[in-house]
């Protein structure tokens, strides 16, 4: 079965492919489509944005589509950047500028108040109109300077306290064991297997 992950982000595609490597499910992305345009994500929640992207992808391709919307919620910033995580520092999207802005806003925040979480909502949309939602979250805190070279986005600043390492210091396997997106992807696998049985 072929499915489309509605993203241009190869990091997300690698994560999903790694998780479903044994399921005989081929994952393609928006990068595999000609003249792919990004859909405007104007939802107010991660789930709304994921649904917008999944519906657009299934309509365009006729394939079962997955789309996630993930973001960072920082308690000291009242949940920001939230759904604006990717464009926190404005257009165009830029991880380095987003991280710089986050560090500036948290400059005077003490260590015990730098708590944060990554959240992910994943929507699976089938050509027959069925939709499914899975979610994941991982708790942590924001460091004062980046650590690690793997991962992307805010990963170098996000410390997982029980591991003593940032998400950017974890191997792909370690990250897939705990990340918010991996949690949502893992919950999606039984749904995909059921859909595969229905749409061989």
TrEMBL record:
<comment type="subunit">
    <text>Homodimer.</text>
</comment>
<keyword id="KW-0460">Magnesium</keyword>
<dbReference type="GO" id="GO:0035870">
    <property type="term" value="F:dITP diphosphatase activity"/>
</dbReference>
<feature type="binding site">
    <location>
        <position position="175"/>
    </location>
    <ligand>
        <name>substrate</name>
    </ligand>
</feature>
<feature type="binding site">
    <location>
        <position position="40"/>
    </location>
    <ligand>
        <name>Mg(2+)</name>
    </ligand>
</feature>
<dbReference type="InterPro" id="IPR020922">
    <property type="entry name" value="dITP/XTP_pyrophosphatase"/>
</dbReference>
<keyword id="KW-0546">Nucleotide metabolism</keyword>
<dbReference type="GO" id="GO:0000166">
    <property type="term" value="F:nucleotide binding"/>
</dbReference>
<keyword id="KW-0378">Hydrolase</keyword>
<dbReference type="GO" id="GO:0036222">
    <property type="term" value="F:XTP diphosphatase activity"/>
</dbReference>
<dbReference type="GO" id="GO:0036220">
    <property type="term" value="F:ITP diphosphatase activity"/>
</dbReference>
<dbReference type="GO" id="GO:0009117">
    <property type="term" value="P:nucleotide metabolic process"/>
</dbReference>
<dbReference type="InterPro" id="IPR002637">
    <property type="entry name" value="RdgB/HAM1"/>
</dbReference>
<comment type="similarity">
    <text>Belongs to the HAM1 NTPase family.</text>
</comment>
<dbReference type="GO" id="GO:0017111">
    <property type="term" value="F:ribonucleoside triphosphate phosphatase activity"/>
</dbReference>
<feature type="binding site">
    <location>
        <position position="69"/>
    </location>
    <ligand>
        <name>Mg(2+)</name>
    </ligand>
</feature>
<feature type="binding site">
    <location>
        <position position="70"/>
    </location>
    <ligand>
        <name>substrate</name>
    </ligand>
</feature>
<protein>
    <recommendedName>
        <fullName>dITP/XTP pyrophosphatase</fullName>
        <ecNumber>3.6.1.66</ecNumber>
    </recommendedName>
</protein>
<dbReference type="GO" id="GO:0005829">
    <property type="term" value="C:cytosol"/>
</dbReference>
<keyword id="KW-0547">Nucleotide-binding</keyword>
<feature type="binding site">
    <location>
        <begin position="180"/>
        <end position="181"/>
    </location>
    <ligand>
        <name>substrate</name>
    </ligand>
</feature>
<keyword id="KW-0479">Metal-binding</keyword>
<feature type="binding site">
    <location>
        <begin position="7"/>
        <end position="12"/>
    </location>
    <ligand>
        <name>substrate</name>
    </ligand>
</feature>
<dbReference type="GO" id="GO:0009146">
    <property type="term" value="P:purine nucleoside triphosphate catabolic process"/>
</dbReference>
<feature type="active site" description="Proton acceptor">
    <location>
        <position position="69"/>
    </location>
</feature>
<dbReference type="GO" id="GO:0046872">
    <property type="term" value="F:metal ion binding"/>
</dbReference>
<dbReference type="InterPro" id="IPR029001">
    <property type="entry name" value="ITPase-like_fam"/>
</dbReference>
<comment type="function">
    <text>Pyrophosphatase that catalyzes the hydrolysis of nucleoside triphosphates to their monophosphate derivatives, with a high preference for the non-canonical purine nucleotides XTP (xanthosine triphosphate), dITP (deoxyinosine triphosphate) and ITP. Seems to function as a house-cleaning enzyme that removes non-canonical purine nucleotides from the nucleotide pool, thus preventing their incorporation into DNA/RNA and avoiding chromosomal lesions.</text>
</comment>
<dbReference type="Pfam" id="PF01725">
    <property type="entry name" value="Ham1p_like"/>
</dbReference>
<feature type="binding site">
    <location>
        <begin position="152"/>
        <end position="155"/>
    </location>
    <ligand>
        <name>substrate</name>
    </ligand>
</feature>
């Amino acid at each position: 079965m072929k499915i489309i992950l509605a993203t241009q982000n190869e990091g997300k595609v690698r994560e999903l492919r790694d998780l479903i490597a044994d399921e005989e499910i081929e994952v393609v992305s928006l990068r595999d489509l000609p003249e792919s345009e990004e859909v405007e994500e104007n939802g107010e929640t991660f789930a709304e944005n994921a649904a917008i992207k999944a519906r657009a992808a299934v309509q365009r391709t006729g394939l079962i589509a997955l789309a996630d919307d993930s973001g960072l919620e920082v308690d000291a910033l009242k949940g920001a950047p939230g759904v604006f995580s990717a464009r926190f520092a404005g257009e165009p999207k830029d991880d380095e500028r987003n991280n710089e802005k986050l560090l500036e806003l948290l400059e005077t925040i003490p260590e015990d108040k730098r708590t944060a979480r990554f959240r992910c909502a994943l929507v699976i949309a089938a050509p027959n109109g069925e939709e499914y939602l899975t979610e994941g979250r991982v708790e942590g805190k924001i460091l004062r300077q980046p650590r690690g070279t793997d991962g992307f986005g805010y990963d170098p600043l996000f410390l997982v306290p029980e591991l003593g390492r940032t998400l950017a210091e974890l191997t792909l396997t370690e990250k897939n064991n705990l990340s918010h997106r991996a949690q949502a992807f893992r919950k999606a696998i039984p749904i995909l297997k059921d859909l595969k049985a229905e749409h061989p």
